[in-house]
């Protein structure tokens, strides 16, 4: 993000954050992705991600998904990975948006990311249907809130 992000119109800011998240070079969930000296990373090119925050969010997105999605046998492994990845995207986007003091745009950014993510996967995974489930919506909301809270300096230990 450019230093003049506060002067950006809302639509341009939303587009920039979505692009920043989507351009991340992350092949696997952040919990299993390292980047430089960071053992867990979203691989997002944003200058102000605290390493401890990134580690905390990557761990939360991996370990807490089952609290929202229920037993893994209700969805396929591919669907679960997709839900984790989308949740991670929402988490890091909320974190960045909060850090940049544009939190009023978090919902719009999340909506864009969910729409883009639901279209990015093969049709046979039925991702739009999975994303529309009550449990996925709760998970996405949790991820959005969690990212913003971590950006505010809160250390969260339970869901």
What can you tell me about this protein's structure?
With 159 residues, this protein is an all-alpha fold. It has a domain at 51-159. The protein is 57% helix and 0% strand. It is built from seven helices and no strands. Helix 1 (10-22) packs across helix 4 and helix 2 packs antiparallel against helix 4 (77-99). The N and C termini lie far apart (30 Å).
SSE map:
Elements: H1 10-22, H2 51-63, H3 65-69, H4 77-99, H5 106-119, H6 127-131, H7 134-151
Helix pairs in contact: 1-4, 1-5, 2-4, 2-7, 4-5, 4-7
Question: What about the largest sheet?
Answer: none
Portion of residues within helices = 55-70%
* Outline: globular
Radius of gyration over C-alpha positions, nearest whole angstrom:
15 Å
Structural class: mainly alpha
Indicate the proportion of strand residues.
Answer: under 5%
Mean pLDDT: 81
Number of strands: 0
Q: Encode the helix/strand succession as letters.
A: HHHHHHH
| SS field, number of helical segments | 7
Oligomerization status of the protein chains: single chain
What ranges have pLDDT less than 50 throughout 5 or more consecutive residues?
none
Distance between the termini: 30 Å
């Amino acid at each position: 993000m450019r230093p003049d992000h506060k002067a950006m119109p809302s639509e341009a800011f939303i587009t920039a954050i979505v692009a920043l998240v989507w351009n991340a070079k992350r092949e696997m969930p952040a919990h299993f992705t390292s980047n430089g000296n960071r053992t867990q990373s979203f691989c997002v090119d944003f200058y102000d991600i605290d390493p401890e925050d990134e580690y905390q969010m990557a761990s939360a997105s991996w370990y807490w998904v089952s609290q929202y999605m229920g037993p893994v046998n209700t969805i396929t492994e591919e669907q679960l990975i997709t839900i984790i990845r989308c949740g991670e995207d929402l988490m890091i986007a909320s974190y960045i948006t909060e850090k940049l003091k544009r939190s009023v745009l978090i919902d719009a950014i999340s909506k864009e990311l969910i729409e883009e993510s639901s279209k990015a996967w093969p049709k046979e995974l039925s991702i739009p249907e999975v994303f529309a489930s009550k449990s996925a919506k709760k998970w996405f909301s949790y991820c959005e809130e969690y990212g913003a809270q971590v950006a505010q300096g809160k250390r969260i230990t339970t869901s």
